[in-house]
Amino acid sequence: MSPRALDPRHARVVICCGSGGVGKTTASAALALKWAIAGQRVAVLTIDPARRLADSLSIGEIGNTPVRVPIERIAPHATGRLDAMMLDAKATFDDLVRRLAVSDTSATRILENRYYQFTSTRLGGSHEYMAMERLYDLWHSGLYDVVVLDTPPTRHALDFLRAPDRMASLMDEGVLRWLVMPASRSGWRALELGSEAVSRVLKRVMGRGTISEIAEFFEVFRDLWEGFHGRSVQVQSLLRDRRTTFLLVSSPSPAARGDALFFLDKLHEQALPFGGFLVNRTVGIPQQSLRPEELPTQGPLPADRWAAVLATIQQAPLLRTRLAQDHAQAVAALRSAGPAGAPCWCVPEQRQDLHDLPGLAAIGAFLPDERSVRPL
Amino acid sequence: MSLLDHRIIVVTGKGGSGKSTVCAALGLLAARAGKRVLVAETSGADALPTLFGVPGRGYQPVRLAEGLETLSITPLEAIEDYVVQQIKVRKLYEMVFRNRVMSPFVDGVPGLHDAVQLGKVWDCAVQQKDAQGRHRWDVVIVDAPATGHGLTMLEAPRSMMELTRVGPMYRGNERVEEVLGDPRQTRMVVVALPEEMPVAETLDLHARLGERRRQLSLCVLNEVHPRAPTTASDWARARPSLLASGQPAVIEAADLVDAWMERLVRQDGSRQRLAEGMGLPVVDLPFFFQRKLGLAEVALLADHLAPAVEAA
Question: How far apart are alpha carbons A305 and A310 in whole angstroms?
Fold first, then answer.
């Protein structure tokens, strides 16, 4: 697919993906903060319900509507701005239904449908779809230069890329027509099978009642179909906008590394624009080598306790070296798995948890500026 | 009663907290006690064969050690398994469910993926019998997905029941829920890391578990760094005289000791917050300064877990 023309009204999108526990949410927030301080109008959308992100951004509550982050506290002359929001899948879904429904009555009918209520709140899958929906809103709102998306922390996070497609094809003619009009011959024919066999299978597997309830759900959903279909197309164009970039966030742990390679494959498979690696919490090899003879043989403690102190100060660099070597191997393995020339930004492990704006801003030094993040 | 005497043990926790390693160690521990053990990884994860240095992985059980097997459940294979069990004819499954019209439907029904994976766990733990009519496995250990999705998955049978209300789907999920929701049969272990955010998320998970909290047996605090030979107060007293020399190597090493001491304080704080917040025993597992773990490390972790698992 050829990249679409650059539309200046649209924000550019940076999507941070990777497995859970690698500091993806923090990295997304730190990138967004850095770029806002540098003068961009930035929105960061997180899926992570952790209160701590709100705390570290110095905002009380974080929800579906944008909250302005007080970046002037750390950068009084910043010309950009930063809005943060956390995905509320249910609220987003409800909004979407209201927008797409042909009438208020129709919207109400959908919102009150039992199956809809399950879909939008209780069951997995809708999160991914709604993340794309919210991202799309932000993208073309005209309010932002950059939108940073923190994806759900699962291996299936990239399912969200297919989510709009899946939703649309689920509602697509074949299934929809067949479910809504199970008795009609055209519906059955779509399955290219004798209707009796199909009916028998589904009754056995799901139960007749369930089938008719799901059919009812699709029936009320039918007038949204066109809207969903349109959205699916629009989201695909967003994902393939030539300024959209995927960053793979990882950490030196083997699990994270494995997941990063998995994501890399998926991005490649779907021809999505990869922009580089961001590896969190790496440590470096100590610069100096400590010689035991340089240490004072006596100190302000009894001999045995002094010996314990000396043992500690000699052990610390050794432990660090082992860890650093392992991290270096991890980063090298990641780089060699990626496309040639893929940048890799390493954020050194911080001594303290990042719990406030200055802390987040501090790791900005290790992060790329906005212009350096671009598809390879 | 030991934790390992239950039918199912669900291991949950934040992503990257080391759930798979904990599953492996628990599995090894149970196998050492003479049990026939299955570790079920979900959503296509397959970390265990690598940990044990064993080739092969997939939906069919793979032998890891004496008495210990693993399998990797994917939603699609679990759906196929379920449907074929229901209709008895694989050909029919292929005709109907592999059909281009049906597959988006199966793919799109929310919650179905989670429910069928747990259905497979239930099948392994409850339904499958050996030639003597005993359960094929004495205990099934489930490596659940990371926190958020893991909770959704555990809720799936109940959600599907409320959704369907009657019919075979309802009854199937009801049977799963009877076992998974029963504290006498199914226990949960939560894995946390000794850092502020993972602890906060673990406590949040605990809060959201609702009545499933009574199924929690144990909290595992993973990647705990070793104690230093010296104490924090001795270090504080010794530091100025060590730095007096002004040697760059000493200054750098002292910084690393500072970081080590700070880490120990955070670890102790994490352990205390978890124990108080959840009212559960918290057991430490050591951090290995090499990241690539193997059978030797898993065996060591099993030793560490043993006393707490017996008492839980």
Answer: 9
